[in-house]
Amino acid sequence: MTPFRDLPIKQKLMVLNIGIAAAALLLSGFLLVVIDAVLFHQSLRSDLGTFARVIADNSTASLAFDDPQSAGEILGALHARTHVISACLAREDGSMFADFTRPGSNRRCEKPPPADEIHSTWDAVIVTRGVVLKGRKIGSLTIAYDNGELTERIRIWGAAVLAVLALSCLVVVWFSARLRSIFLTPIVELARTTAAVSATKVYSVRAASTSGDEVGQLAGAFNEMLAGIESRDADLRTTLLEREQALARLAEVNWEFQRSNEQLARSNEDLERFAFIASHDMQEPLRMVTIYSQLLVKQCGEANAETANYRDYIISGTARMRDLIADLRSYLDITTAPREMGPVDVNGAILKAKESLRAAIEESGADVISGPMPVVNGLESHIVSLFQNLIGNAIKYRSDQPPRIRISAAVVDGMNCFEVSDNGIGIAPEFHSQVFQAFRRLHGREIDGTGIGLAICQRIVERKGGRIWVESQVGQGATFKFALPRLHSEDV
Amino acid sequence: MSNKISILLMEDNPGDVQLLRLALSTAGVDCEFIVISDGAQAIQFANQCAEDSGRIVPDLAILDMDLPKHDGLAILEALRGSAHFAALPVVILTSSPTLRELPKLQSLGITRHLTKPPDLDAFMALGVVIKEILEANRRS
Prior knowledge:
The structure holds two protein chains of two kinds.
Chain A: H1 2-6, H2 9-58, H3 60-64, H4 68-76, E1 84-91, E2 96-101, E3 117-120, E4 124-133, E5 136-146, H5 148-200, H6 214-300, H7 305-336, E6 342-345, H8 346-356, H9 358-364, E7 367-370, E8 375-378, H10 380-396, E9 404-412, E10 415-421, H11 453-463, E11 467-472, E12 478-485
Parallel strand pairs in A: 7-9
Antiparallel strand pairs in A: 1-2, 1-5, 3-4, 4-5, 6-8, 9-10, 10-12, 11-12
Helix pairs in contact in A: 2-5, 5-6, 6-7, 7-11, 8-10, 10-11
Chain B: E1 5-10, H1 14-26, E2 31-36, H2 39-51, E3 60-64, H3 72-81, E4 90-94, H4 102-108, E5 112-115, H5 120-139
Helix pairs in contact in B: 1-5, 2-3
């Protein structure tokens, strides 16, 4: 069956059509031939019966007068009936009276049966009729009639059936060709379109829909499906294109970003180097200016109020410049400090910070209370500096009440989170990010300072991988918070 | 102090030279200075003195670490290389309190490391410190 399954539909159809037509024709032809043969056989028997009766009656006189010659003549006339093979006229005792045998036949007369009968053998029909004179049977006639006529009829009928069969096959072939154009061509067209779409991935082609039947509906549905795929394909292509464009833009932006980052890093490095050199080299001339102006002042003495003013400006100016340079240096030194640091107990660092701020704490009457503190990774001088700046700021920017400074620590999101809160003047939210910029000050000279403290704090915290921020409102104190990574031993 | 004290001052900043003179005289030290203002000259001086053993040995050397051409370490090595200056007390003077070469300098033998003070009063106090060093050396 497999080879048949793989045949193209048109051949399948042809084979099916021929097969069905042949089977129907053969069956009906066979039935017709059989029925005809049976009917013919029956009529032959009946005709032969009558025929034999006529011959038997004609032969009565010959037998009654014992004239075999006339009987032979009567039987010899049977020669004209080509299908009569033999005819035998026997006396009542069974002895042969006269006979006729067709030349070429080897049939011999046999002893006739006692009663009238008709029986058929495979090649002949044999009829026996009694010869009766005045109610007394005086002999019997037996005629053998061959089946040649029947065979002839069957042969003619068979030939006719075969001829019809051949003709039918021709009609089927022709009809299949017609069918193909009506029925198969749309399917083949559909199949070709499908193959083309599958091979080229071009979804804009459409199958030709010519009929309203199932194939036409299939083609319509296929076209609808193609339209759906085409629109989805177009959407997909657009999306892909957009994504590619977006990716390209992103890569471009990334590259620009990286380049500007590198430039920034380079200019940052240059700036740091410049600041470092400047802070170093400015110290010497500043020292000279400071000391020699002091010397000048000392030697000139108190000339008058005006020169005393000048003197004060020089002294405060040089002092401020010295502070700025010193602060700049300590700010820059944070970066040059070694990165690998040991554990620092923050409790101890806060004590040291408070110790160095003792004068300011006592003078302002500040109340500095710190809770239990963890051990962090770092450089002790940095941690001390961090708290010294934050506590110092809390005292420096106090309100009219005595400073109340609270320091606490907790673990938040896996980081050590510290808080230094005060009851000072507070910072307006719009300045929260500015306060961490180097040398950025929100207050004038009424409050002492260079504006480097919080920048130092930020640098220390960020260098340790943490971050620092402030939460504050004007007049409501400020809370400086910073988060530092926990020690590795705590990361369990 | 019977005869005049001699101080070898290796310093390129005339302002500091002037201030040291003033500080020492204010502290009551009557001394004369041999002033050398660059590293090459200092090394040349050390080598010359080694050949001429008749020259007087200063009572104290004050060495600024940041001289042009040769740094303080090279100069101290040159000084200690000659028998003439092997026992010379040397005070190192720097502008910043941190000194990376300090261990090497100490192994070559220095008396003290002093920082140039940022204001007049502290500078004058430096005169007193140097006077004490001179007196301590004289006694020993």
